[in-house]
Specification:
Order of helices and strands: HEHEHHEEEHEHHHEEHEHE
Largest sheet: 8 strands, mixed
Strand content: 15-25%
Helix content: 40-55%
Structural class: alpha/beta
Shape: globular
């Protein structure tokens, strides 16, 4: 999208904003707030951000079908991306490469020191932050580390083993067929309203500045973030573009929520039900 449409969107003034749901507003906006707080310390740059995710929710058949397509669909990247001289995520309006990059430090298996394990959407969230950092300049070398908060090392290991077992069953065609046919929800099926109301998402972000300052933030979504609150996030993202356009600096291009609606969207989410706090650690 960036390689194909960014320049035309800038020419016409169209703001194209991706990832305006649970992927990836919580992490994208939380990183923005942490970077701003770090910058208050004599202009410090952000050097590291860690996320501890706590999730209760259910997957829908449609989400699972999308995951299957990504894993086994064999879709090829457009040739324009393959021909780019650098990753389009890092491209600036001048069509040059941003000097502000992100280093991948996501938890891949189990991090016993922080009691975190693999979170399957962490790479998507990381790439949203990569785009935001490229455009907004949080820090020239920001380490991004995200994982599922398991509270203790044993639970981190057990949770990872559960994910790994499911992954193995999905990889092999015979067991994948059995799961899709008899166990997993099908497209159009999903959690009940009662299940969604009892679900939640809490993320804790911990940031480090270039001179050693530490800042932490907590963001809470009090119902199912993948359904009910994704609908709210999408609605508030659109309303921000329409009703608060005078407060938004973006004037055309392919953006992330942080790089386009930014603080305006964070304020709207807080006003409509999201809990958010930030403090020096």
């Amino acid at each position: 999208m960036i390689a194909t449409h960014d320049q035309e969107a800038r020419r016409t003034g169209a703001n194209i904003v991706h990832l305006c749901g649970c992927d990836c507003i919580p992490w994208d906006l939380c990183t923005l707030a942490l970077a701003d707080k770090v910058r208050e310390k004599d202009g410090e740059e952000l050097t590291r951000v860690e996320f501890y995710d706590t999730v209760k929710g259910s997957l829908s058949g449609g989400t699972l079908e999308t995951m299957m397509h990504i894993m086994f669909g064999g879709e090829k990247k457009p040739q324009i991306v393959a021909d780019a001289h650098f990753d389009p995520i890092l491209s600036l309006p001048s069509q040059t490469k941003s000097e502000y990059g992100v280093v991948d430090k996501n938890v891949r298996t189990v991090d016993f020191g922080s009691s975190r394990c693999l979170f399957m959407m962490s790479d998507v969230n990381k790439n949203a932050v990569r785009r935001s950092n490229a455009l907004l300049g949080y820090g020239r070398r920001v380490e991004y580390s995200e994982g599922l908060d398991a509270k203790n090392p044993i639970m981190a290991l057990l949770t990872f083993l559960m994910f790994a077992t499911f992954g193995l069953l999905i990889v092999f065609p015979p067991t994948r067929y059995v799961l899709r046919k008899f166990v997993l929800p099908k497209p159009g099926e999903g959690p009940s309203e009662e299940q969604m109301l009892s679900s939640y998402l809490t993320i804790v972000g911990k940031a480090t500045g270039s001179r050693g300052s530490h800042v932490s933030a907590e963001m809470k979504f009090h119902v199912d973030a993948g359904y009910m609150d994704t609908a709210r996030m999408l609605a508030e993202s659109g309303l921000a573009l329409v009703l608060d356009k005078d407060k938004i600096a973006a004037r055309g291009g392919v953006y992330t929520p942080a790089a386009c609606q930014g603080r305006v969207l964070l304020d709207r989410l807080i006003e409509s039900g999201t809990s958010f706090s930030i403090k020096e650690a």
